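Predict structure. Input: Thioredoxin, 61 residues.
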Amino acid sequence: VPFHLDQIDIYAPGQESAQKYMFDVPVVELNGRVAMMHRIDEPKLVEILQNEKAQKQDPKP
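Output follows.
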């Protein structure tokens, strides 16, 4: 499943994510929603991405 990944240093100057995710890294956000945190389960992440792609291709009325 193709996707674009932005890796963000939450401790970089000017980053507001440090307070939000300080104890929860790594965090995967998908379209502004937290999809996964604390550890990355690759098969589950692929499933989440495939579901997201399917929803975009077949929007509900």
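Residues 30 and 49 are 9 Å apart (CA to CA).
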